[in-house]
Design brief:
Number of strands: 16
Bound molecules: zinc ion
Mean pLDDT: 83
Radius of gyration: 22 Å
Low-confidence stretches: 72-80
CATH superfamily of the largest domain: Aldolase class I
Structural class: alpha/beta
Distance between the termini: 53 Å
Length: 485
């Protein structure tokens, strides 16, 4: 058993911050920790230890140190907080309500379990937006969530307000019920400046919906997608958001990707969310039921006969380097300071060519490109285009030759003109973004990871709180304190 690094976690019982370490055993990464009052805990942290070592070596600012030291956190007084923010938010989440227009068996937003109504007023929502825009740099993306955010009567006014407040991207997370019922709903979203629809989508058969939501929502989802296809408005585009549960729908991962590729003109991405456990669960069930990013990547690999491999995925840090470079080159621009932990997100760009999906890493040499990007500075700006043209043959891999002219244009715009426009143009092409975002729970909570989270919830205390920390430790208290009943 090899110790990979030491970190901090929470005691699952008293939620006190306690020391933890990550160890490698039988090819997997485990988290081990002990609370002086409640004993020892172990949980799977990452399903593929070699892949974990690889991403940490390549992408972490703090590489694995092999440290076995047991820091004493018994005196650290972090009452039920579990983080200390190190990253500005890139996506700010605002919950518009905890009401919903469906009643599922299990609701991950806790709609069915929360007894009190949480629904900030229009002016409170403005306050939440201001909190996000006042962070440094101002949060560029807002995500409306809930409950079901679209059931508010003032929903479109709220979206338009976000546009006025200067958010570059407006995302709405929805179950799709209104999109399915109202053929003109997509156009209404367009008029309210919504850019992206996060559509909850758990699979391509009835079973995952029956299992997860207690009712077959597949026909409704397909209806919603058809209505977007037939809408006269081009935007918002759809990003599918499947909740992934081992043994329920993990075997459908590659089919969902193929389904999205078939609908690439309206579906631009998929954000898979392998979930942790809610409620009490015994240790044996925990270890067999746990699913991490790498387990999902393995399923992708199988479903695509190795044409997409787990090593084609990169952490979000890979994109951060691009934004950092853009900021260095254009000091006046307000681009984002993002910190992310390599273990949190795994993303791949898939380029659709004929009927095939080719990972971007097989079209361009991502490592060479990253080296070039990291060396960029304003002093050499004049020679850059020439340098870049010379680098190009080294960058373009065999599969990419036919696409090279197009790629050159995209990359040129990205560095020298307008990053936002380049990203939009890139997505207008036949490109699908597939990401896996492993949500953590109190069992595998890693303070290092949470501190580097760039997805935050805005609160009426004028704070922004990292995603996992909010859901695990703060949501209940905040919703009760600001409840309308
Ligand atoms: Zn404890």
């Amino acid at each position: 058993m090899e110790t990979l690094t030491s970190t901090r976690s929470l005691c699952p019982v008293c939620l006190k911050t306690i020391p933890a370490k990550l160890v490698m055993r039988e090819g997997k990464v485990y988290m081990q920790k002990s609370c002086s009052s409640h004993g020892e805990y172990e949980d799977i942290y990452y399903g593929d230890a070699n892949l974990y070592k690889h991403i940490m070596r390549e992408y972490s600012k703090q590489p694995l140190n092999g440290s076995d030291e047991k820091k004493d956190f018994s005196d650290v007084n972090i009452p039920v907080r579990g983080y200390d923010i190190k990253s500005a938010p890139i996506i700010g989440i605002v919950d518009l309500t905890n009401r919903c227009n469906l009643s599922c068996n299990v609701c991950f937003a806790g709609c069915t379990s929360s007894p009190s109504l949480y629904e900030p007023s229009f002016s409170e929502i403005e306050q939440l937006m201001d909190t996000l825009r006042q962070s440094d740099p101002p949060c560029p993306i807002i995500l409306f969530s809930g409950g079901e955010p679209t059931i508010r009567k003032d929903f479109f006014e709220i979206c338009s307000l976000a546009h006025k407040k200067g958010f570059s991207f407006i995302i709405v997370a929805t179950n799709g019920k209104l999109l399915a019922q109202d053929k003109s709903y997509h156009e209404k979203l367009n008029k309210a400046h919504v850019d992206i629809i996060y559509l909850q989508f758990d699979g391509l058969t009835e079973d995952p919906y029956m299992e997860i939501r207690g009712t077959n929502l597949l026909p409704m989802k397909l209806e919603a997608i058809e209505n977007v296809r037939n809408s006269p408005a081009k935007y918002p585009a759809i990003v599918l958001v499947p909740t992934v549960i081992k043994g329920v729908n993990d075997h459908q991962i590659s089919d969902i990707v193929k389904f999205a590729a078939k609908n690439i003109t309206i579906i631009k991405g998929i954000l898979f969310q392998p979930i942790g456990f809610v409620g009490d669960i015994n240790n044996k069930k925990l270890l067999t039921g746990r699913i991490t990013n790498s387990d999902c990547l393995e399923q992708m690999e199988k479903g695509f006969d190795g044409k997409i491999s787990r090593y084609d995925f990169v952490p979000l840090v890979w994109l951060t380097d691009f934004l950092d470079a853009y900021k260095r080159m254009n000091p006046s621009s307000k681009t984002i300071n993002i910190e992310t932990h390599p273990g949190c997100f795994s993303v791949v760009y898939l380029v659709k060519k004929d009927d095939e999906l080719i990972p971007l890493s097989r079209i361009i040499n991502l490592e060479e490109l990253r080296k070039f990007v990291r060396a960029l500075n304003p002093a050499n700006k004049a020679e850059l285009i020439t340098k870049f043209a010379f680098l190009l043959p080294k960058l373009i891999l065999k599969e990419g030759i036919k696409l090279s002219g197009q790629l050159f244009e995209i990359l040129k715009t990205l560095y020298f003109e307008n990053a936002e426009e380049a990203i939009m143009n890139f997505h207008r092409e036949n490109v699908l973004l597939v990401g896996f975002e492993h949500g953590i729970d109190v069992r595998n909570y890693d303070c290092d990871k949470v501190e580097k989270c760039c997805i935050h919830y805005a609160t009426l205390d004028n704070e922004s709180i990292p995603f996992c920390s909010y859901n695990l430790l703060h949501r209940k208290d905040i919703e009760e304190r600001f409840s309308k009943e």
